[in-house]
Request: fold
Amino acid sequence: MSVKDIKDKTPPRTMPIQSATFSNPINAEIRRAAATGIYDIRGGGAKRRVPHFDDLLFLGASVSRYPLEGYREKCDTKVTLGTRFAKKPIELDIPITIAGMSFGALSGPAKEALGRGASAAGTSTTTGDGGMTPEERGHSTKLVYQYLPSRYGMNPDDLRKADAIEVVVGQGAKPGGGGMLLGQKISDRVAEMRNLPKGIDQRSACRHPDWTGPDDLEIKILELREITAWEKPIYVKVGGTRPYYDTALAVKAGADVVVLDGMQGGTAATQDVFIEHVGLPTLACIRPAVQALQDLGVHREVQLVVSGGIRTGADVAKAMALGADAVAIGTAALIALGDNDPRWESEYQKLGSTAGAYDDWHEGQDPAGITTQDAELQKRLDPIEAGRHLRNYLSVMTLEAQTIARACGHNNLHNLEPEDLCALTMEAAAMARVPLAGTEWYPGKPGF
Amino acid sequence: MMQTYDLQANGLRELNAALHAQANDTNQTSWEIVNPRGSHAVAVGLDAPIEVSVKGSTGYYTAGMNKQATVHVHGSAGPGVAENMMSGTVVVEGDASQYAGATGHGGLLVIKGNASSRCGISMKGINIVVHGNVGHMSAFMAQSGNLVVCGDAGDALGDSIYEARLFVRGSVKSLGADCIEKEMRPEHIEILRDLLDRAGSDAKPEEFKRYGSARQLYNFKIDNAY
Reply:
C-alpha cells in the first residue's frame, strides 16, 4: 500500500468553523481584557454595521417629476442657522459644517487646517473641549464655540468672539458619558489652557456643573444670551438617544439650533464598549427629531444639524431629505486632512494597527500628525495643504448633493423631501420612515 | 455718581446692556439695582471696574462670568452665583444655592451665609470664602484656587479633586474620592489669613484643616475604577 493510497483513505473531517458568537475579534478582546484588566479605550465612532444612509436610495425624476439640468440650472446650497432668536444668525454657503473637535485632542496645525478648509468652502468650524485658540479663531471666518460640561478654557471673552455658541449636552459616540484626554497628550499649552498640571489624565465631566434638566437649561441659555447681547445663535447638541424628546426639550429651553449626533459620530477617546453599545444610529434619529420640530411648529425656524457618519454628498442629501437643515462632519474631515492615510502604513503597523483601522487617537502617536500633541509628528501636517484638501472634499460633497437634488427636480437642497427616497431594508424603512423599495409601505406606517 | 436701576420696571436686557456699556474709565462706577425679586442672570458678563449693589435676593447665575466688577447681593443668591468668574469680587450677604462659584477662574466670592451643594464645583482658580456651611459634593473636580469654609462641609467634599486647596474650620461629613487631609504649612496659614481678612471673617487660620488631592486618580488605573 503506497502513501498515496493511505491518504486517499483518510476519512473526511469536519471543517473547522469559527463561532459567530465567539468570533476572532471577540476572542482577541477577551484575551486582551484578561491580560490587562482594563477596558479598551479608543477614538472614533461605532464601527459595527448599523442601518445607515447606504440603505436608502433616491428615486430620481420620472414621468411624474422632471429633473433640472445637472450643471447649469441653479441648485441653492445656502443655509442660515440661528434665525429664531439670535440677532446675528450664521449664514453659510453650504449646509456641511465642521463638528466640534478640541485643541488637545487635535494638534494645532490640524485645527488650523480645519479652519482654513471650512472658511474656503464658506462654512463654519467648531471648537471643542479645551477652549478656543487664537489660531483657530484667526483661520475660521465662522466659528462655533462649544460650551461643555468641563468648561476647560471657557471664558467670556472667547464667548463674545464666537459666531455661535453650542451648548453640548452629549455626543453620539458616548451619550451620557464624559470625555477623557489622557496624560500623553497634555502638553504645556494644553495643560495651561485647561488649568491642570501637565501629564495627568484630564476628565471631562458627563454633565454640566451648574445646571440640570431642561428648566435649568432655559435659564443657562438666558444667561449666555445676556452676556452676548442676544447676538449669537445658541445651538444645543445632543447625542442620539431619545431624539424626539431631546429635540422638543431643547426647543423648549430656547435653542436656535439643535445638533443631533448619532452613534457613528466620533470621539477623541472613550471606552469601546460605550461607543459600540450606547446610543442610536444616525439614521434612526432624524425623523423623530423632525417630528418634534413639526409638532411644535418650528421645523425650519429651529434648524436641525445632523452628524454621525456623514461621508458623501449622497449622505448629505439623504439627511436633508429626511428633514435636516444642515449636517456636520468630524471623522470624514480628519480623513480629508490625512488621517488613516495608507502612506503611513508602515507606522500604523508598528503601532499594531493598519491604515483605515487606526483609532488609538488618545495615545498621541498619530503618524499623520493630526490627533497628537507631539511636536515632531505635528510637523507632518501642512495646515495649508490639508486645508486645501478639506475645501476640495467639501466642494465635492456639495456638488454630489446638488447632482442628486437636481435629479430629483429640486433647485434647492432644502427642497429634498422624504418622498424622494426609498429604503433597501426593512430596518432602514422603519427608521427613515420611507417606503421599502418597490412598495408603498414602511413599518409603522398608518393604514398598513 | 450712583446710578439706580429698578429691575422690575425696566427689565433685565436694559440693565445688562447698560452695565456692559461701562468702559474701564467710566465715571458711573456705582450702580444700585432695586427690586431684583429673584431675577435670573442679573449683572452677568460684566467687564469694568464698577460696583453693583443688588438690593434683594436674586435667581440663577448672578454675576456670572464676572470680570473686574464688584457685585454685592444684599439678600440671597440662587444657583450658580458668580459661575465662571474671571476676576473681581462677588459678595452675597445671605445664603447661596447650588453651584456657587462653579468653574470660576479667578476673583473672590464671599458668601456670608451658607452655600448649598456643589459649591466650587470644577473651580479653576477662584477663591471662595463661605462664612457658614457648604453642602454635599462641594469642590467636586476642583482644579485650582481656594475654598474656605468657616462652618461645616457636607458629604463627599473634594471628590475627584485636582490641585485646589480646601480649608474647613468645622466638621467634614465625609471626604470624596481621592481627597485627603493635608498638612497645614505656614504658607497655607498666610493664604488663609489673607482670604479671611478680605472676606471680612474674624475666624482664626489656625482653627482650620486643609484638604487636597491624594493624586491617586491622576492617571487612569483600573484599581481606581469604582
User: Anything to note?
Assistant: Chain A has one domain: 52-338+381-432. Chain A touches chain B through 34 residues (CB under 8 Å). The two ends of chain A are 71 Å apart (CA to CA). Chain A has a mean pLDDT of 94.
